[in-house]
Specification:
Number of helices: 8
Radius of gyration: 17 Å
Structural class: alpha/beta
Helix content: 25-40%
Oligomer: single chain
Distance between the termini: 28 Å
Largest sheet: 6 strands, mixed
């Protein structure tokens, strides 16, 4: 029997199950890879907001990554919520030490509810230490503006120019997600050879908790399964779009996606 590919998520835990490690592990499993994790923070949250954050000590974050990487052949990894500069540094060192070359960096900064998930002084560390190690970085529009330290205009040309600026910071590819743009939720993709708009319809719904986590995890899972980077990005976008379209009617705020829509509908098990 051919062994399953292994993916690693380095991110925070969401007690409500819609984002963070929980969303990543569901996504990995739904897309057919073995899911491993290194938790960077515990959060008390649900669909309505974040009420508590407890960062994991950096040496324990390192220990988790080491434990996984020393025992499994990690085909791809992703980062999510990293909280602080010291955790960013610990993760960067571990990623480099274990040669986790297929690294997807989701620069999580603000929760859907507005809660800050990355310290102000960690932004520089994320920019200088982690982006150069990334195969691809997947910011939304506000996160891209923070990383570049300037506003981004509304036109496709403006976002394409911003993607090229991010590319100059060291990642091998960039996707600026379109959820915060006006009109359709078009993403922008850029690598060393091309830059283009990835069209996507906007689904009007409040069930968008964990979309960024799910997208980056889907890219990592598909890379682990041997897809090329452009293929992984395109297929991850399709996966997220359908997970939103089939979202579960749960909670009283921004509800979760349906990560297992490929297997059963929102009404429950078949």
């Amino acid at each position: 029997m051919r062994p399953m590919s292994v993916a690693l998520s380095i991110a925070g835990s969401d007690s409500g199950g819609g984002a963070g490690i929980q969303a990543d592990l569901k996504t990995f499993s739904a897309l057919g890879v073995f899911a491993t994790s290194a938790i960077t923070a515990l959060t008390a949250q649900n669909t309505q907001g974040v009420t508590g954050i407890y960062p994991i000590p950096p040496d324990m974050v390192t220990a988790q990554i080491d434990a996984v990487a020393q025992d499994f052949q990690v085909a791809a990894a992703k980062t999510g919520m990293l909280v602080s500069a010291v955790i960013v540094e610990a993760v960067a060192q571990a990623v480099a030490r274990h040669h986790l070359d297929q690294l997807v960096v989701d620069p999580v900064m603000i929760a859907k509810s507005g809660a800050r998930l990355l310290d102000e002084d960690a932004i520089g560390a994320l920019r200088s230490r982690l982006l150069p190690l990334a195969l691809i970085v997947t910011p939304n529009l506000p996160e891209a503006e923070v990383l570049l330290d300037h506003p981004i205009g509304p036109r496709d040309e403006d976002v394409l120019a911003a993607a090229r600026e991010l590319l100059a910071l060291g990642p091998r590819a960039v996707v600026i997600k379109g959820g915060h743009r006006a009109g359709d939720a078009d993403d922008v993709y850029c690598d060393a050879r091309s830059a283009r708009v990835l069209p996507c319809e906007r689904i009007v719904t409040s069930s968008t908790h964990g979309t960024g986590c799910t997208f980056s995890a889907a890219i990592a899972a598909l890379l682990a399964r041997g897809r090329s980077l452009p293929e992984a990005v395109a297929q991850a976008k399709e996966f997220v779009t359908e997970a939103i379209r089939n979202a579960l009617p749960l909670g009283h705020g921004h509800g979760p996606l349906h990560h297992f829509h490929l297997f059963y509908g929102a009404e429950g098990l078949p």
